[in-house]
Amino acid sequence: MIDEKLRARIAHAARGLAIGGKRVPGQAMMPSLDPGTGKAFVDVPAGAPADIDMAVAAARIALRGAWAKTAPAERGKILRRAADILRRDAHWIGAIETIDSGKPLKDGIAEANAAAAYFDYYAGAADKIEGDTIPQPGDVMSVTLREPIGVSAQILPSNFPLGTAARGVAPALAAGCAIVAKPSDHTPMTALILADVFDEAGLPAGIYNAVTGRGGEAGAALATHTGVDQITFTGSLATGRRILAAAAANVVPAAVELGGKSPLVVLADADLDAAAAVTAKQMFTHAGQVCSAPSLLILEKPIADALLDKLVARVRGLTVDHGLRDANLGAIASAGQVAHIERMVSDAREAGAELLTGGARPEIAGCPDGLYYAPTVLVASGAAQPIVREEVFGPVLTVLIAKDADEAFALADAGQYGLCASVFTNDLGRAFEFQRRVSAGQIYVNDWHLGGVQAPFGGVKRSGIGRERGLAGLEKYLRLKNVNIRPRALQP
Ligand code: NAD
Predict the structure, then answer these.
(1) Residue 62: which CATH number?
(2) Fewest CB atoms within 10 Å of the CB: 8, 100, 115, 353?
C-alpha cells in the first residue's frame, strides 16, 4: 500500500533525532507500527536520557542566539511559512500520519491542514504580545513585560500527533520560546517531519528539537529535566499525574490535557435527525480515539427509542478499513488498547449493559493482523458502571436514559472528567441552564466541536489543567515581569 516515493519520504523523516538543527542517529532504534496492518513500517531512534540532555542543551543555547534577536513580526513570518509548507505537503504528510496512527487518509490530510491553521493563527499573534502599565504615584513608572518562558517540553499523544504538536509548538514559537518535543512511541513520525518543515521555513537551528523514544525513558527524562522551564503534556490521566509530579519537583508550570467522558444530551424537543448524525460522526471519528469524543450519550426518556433507532442505523452504515483505503473508521493505536476496549465492553455487558451494535473485532481484508474494533453502541444498566465513568478511548458509545431534563443534566455533570459537553434542544432556557450546571471546558448547543483554533479548549476536573488554542493558549509560554522605574534616585 506504501509506494516507493512515500517510503523514501518515511525513511528521510526517520533518519535521526532532530537536535540543534542536525539529525543525530539514535544509539538504539525502535519500530513504529502501522496499526492498520499490525506490522512495523519504519524504525526510528529510541531516544535515551542522554539525547534529551543534548536536546535541552541545544534549546537553551539557541534561546540566547539569533532567536532572541528575531523581531516578533519575523517570528510570525516563519510561522506563516511553516503553515504554507504544511498545506503544500499535506497530501504526503497526511498519508504518513495515516500509516503511523491508523486514521483514515482524509483525516490524516485534514490534520496536516489543521496544523497549518494553528501556525497561521499564532503567526498573527507573534507581534501583538503586549504588557500593561500600572498606575503609580509621582513619576514612578510601573510596566509589565511578557517574556518567553524559555524551554518548553512538549510531550505528545498518539491520536493527533501532528495536530497536538502544532497546537503547542505554534504558540510557544510565537511567544519566542524554544522547544523539545517528545512524540508518542506509537506515532513518532510527524514530530520529526516538523523539524524539516521548520528548517525550510527558516527557524533558527535548535529552537525546535524532536526526540523520539519511549515514554518511560525519553518522556520521563524530558519531564524531569531541570533545564526545562515549562511542560505541555497531552495524554492519559495516569501519565498526566506523573507529569504534574515531575513539574512540582522542579517547580515549573505544566499544562496537562487529559482524557474525557464527554456527555452529549438530547432533550425531547431536539432535532433528532441532527442529534443522531452529529453523534455518529463525532463519536466515531478516528475510531473514537479522540479525547473530546461525545462518548456518553444521555437521552431524555420520551425520545430515547426513536433517537437510538436513527443512531444505530447510521452506526451500522459506518465502514472500517485500513486508513489508506479511507473508510469511516481506521485502526486502533496498539494491541494493548484493543484489549482494553474488549475488556471494558465485556465487563459492561456482564454488568447488564445492552449491546445495540458492534462489540467485536471486525475482519479486514488483506490486514489479518490489523488492530480494529467495530463501532459499538451500548445502553448502560446504571450510571455507576465503569463504562459510564471511565474513558474507553475506542469506538464505543455508552448510552444512559434519563427520566427528564433535570436528571439528564445531573448525569452530564456527575463524572470525574470535564472536557466537552453538549445539549441538543430548541429551548434556549434549557440550553442556558445546561451551560450553568455542567462543568466542562467547552460547551456546545445543538452541535459538537465548535470554536476551532480561535476558541480556548481544555479541561476541568480530571480532564486537565490549562488551555490550548486561542489567545488563552499563548499565556503558558509567557512569564510576567514587572519593571518599576524611578527616573532619579530620591535624595536621602
Ligand atoms: P499516554 O499517556 O499513554 O502517552 C502520552 C505521552 O506521554 C506519550 O508521548 C508517551 O510516550 C508519554 N509518556 C508515557 N509515560 C511517560 C512518563 N512516565 N513520563 C513522561 N512521558 C510519558 O497517552 P496516549 O495513549 O498517547 O493518548 C491518549 C490519551 O490522551 C487519552 O486519554 C486522550 O483522552 C488523551 N488526549 C487528550 C487530549 C486533550 O486535548 N485533552 C488530546 C488528545 C489526547
Answers:
(1) 3.40.605.10
(2) 8
468 within a domain of the structure (yes/no): no
CA torsion, points 47, 52, 55, 58, in degrees to nearest 10?
-150
Q: What residue's CA is closest to ligand 1, atom 42?
A: 291
For the record, the C-alpha cell of 134 comes out as 500600572
Query: Do 128 and 246 lie in a common domain?
Result: yes
Closest ligand 1 atom to the C-alpha of 155? 9
Helices and strands in the chain, H and E counts: 16, 22
Grade residue 284 by pLDDT with cuts at 50, 70 and 90: very high
Residue 482 lies in a domain: no
363 with 389, same domain: the answer is yes
Model pTM greater than 0.70?
yes
Domain boundary among 227, 258, 289: 258
**Same domain? 234 vs 201:** yes
Tell me the pLDDT tens digit for each residue of 397-406: 999 999 999 9
Q: Which residues are catalytic?
A: 257, 291
Please check whether residue 486 lies inside any domain of the structure.
no
| Rg value, the chain, Cα | 24
Nearest by Cα to 376 from 348, 353, 357, 389: 357
Whole-number pLDDT of residue 1: 80
pLDDT digits (tens, 9 = 90+) for 177-217: 999 999 999 999 999 999 999 999 999 999 999 999 999 99
Tell me if 211 is assigned to some domain: yes
Verify that 29 and 110 share a domain, yes or no: yes
Q: Let me know whether 207 and 283 are in one domain.
A: no
- What's the CA-to-centroid distance between 336 and ligand 1, angstroms? 14
The pLDDT mean for the chain works out to 98
- The predicted pLDDT at position 336 comes to 97
Distance 473 CA to ligand 1 centre (A): 19
Helix (H, G, I), strand (E, B) or coil at 391: coil
CA of 316 to the centre of ligand 1 (A): 30
213 dihedral zone (left: phi>0; alpha: psi -120 to 50; beta): left
Asked if pLDDT for residue 127 goes beyond 90, the answer is: yes
Looking at the structure, do residues 76 and 102 belong to the same domain, yes or no? yes
Q: Which domain holds residue 292?
A: 263-455
Q: Best substitution site from 156, 228, 234, 390 to test ligand 1's pocket, by max atoms within 8 Å of Cβ?
A: 234
Distance CA 228, CA 245 (A): 14
Are 177 and 304 contained in the same domain? no
Mention every residue, 6+ apart, whose C-beta is less than 8 A from residue 471.
125
Candidates 180, 291, 449: which one to mutate for ligand 1, based on the most atoms within 8 Å of Cβ?
Answer: 291
301 in the same domain as 160: no
Q: What residues does ligand 1 touch, defined as CB less than 6 Å away?
A: 155-160, 164, 182-185, 215-216, 219-220, 223, 234-236, 239, 242, 257-260, 291, 391, 393, 419, 459, 464
Q: Which amino acid is at 477?
A: Y
